[in-house]
Amino acid sequence: MSPRGSEPEGGGDRTIDGMARRVGVMGGTYDPIHIGHLVTAEEASRQFDLNEVMFVPTGQPWMKADRPVSPAEDRYLMTVIATASNPRFSVSRLEIDRGGPTYTVDTLSLLRGKLEPETELFFITGADAMLEIFHWKDPEEVLALAHVIAATRPGYDIARFEREAPSAHPRVDVMDIPALSISSSDIRRRVAAGRPIRYLVPEGVEAYIEKVGLYRS
Ligand code: ATP
Ligand code: MG
Fold first, then answer.
1. pTM confidence score
2. Which residue's CA lies nearest to atom 8 of ligand 1?
3. Are 23 and 115 in contact (CB under 8 A)?
4. Which residue has the CA at smallest separation from atom 26 of ligand 1?
């Protein structure tokens, strides 16, 4: 893995003790990244013994629930700023550099092709996004490419996912995490209304939002 954290490079993709590496992938719009994302990634890395968690910001242009999304470079930079101090976290430009919407299944197969065959892939998602995956493209292929870790999230019924998705599937795990009722939508609304976002996002991200003038109404 290069310290610049772009794509994993082939070769040497084993831990010091010769075990296959375990790599988590966490996709998101990250508009902006917040501590809910960071806690989810950290919990996944601890609970599932991951060597690395790779954050993959979505590409541009992309309308999410009919609102325009901030420029990809801003979302990418905020993700880098937020994850910089954690040696196990990295950020991939894969979807950003492809441009346009990318399906999870395509990202996972691209990564699969770049990693050593024995490296285990884990796709980390919140309960809400988990429900979407199973209504998206090739859910079975997603499960063939990666273990899926579905984190609990306040306001989203993991039981609904249990009914709709094959939760009994050996490749899906539900992960309990400390409940953080934080969303990027709420942070954008707060900035627009001049309310504080301190402690909801890392300090550097708050400073970046302020400096660039993101989310002002
Ligand atoms: P938005 O409100 O714009 O949809 P978001 O807070 O949901 O933003 P996303 O970038 O859409 O953030 O989410 C990326 C991933 O992180 C998704 O899998 C989502 O379920 C998960 N996630 C986001 N916030 C939380 C949270 N507070 N707890 C657990 N998982 C979360
Ligand atoms: Mg979301």
1. 0.90
2. 184
3. yes
4. 36
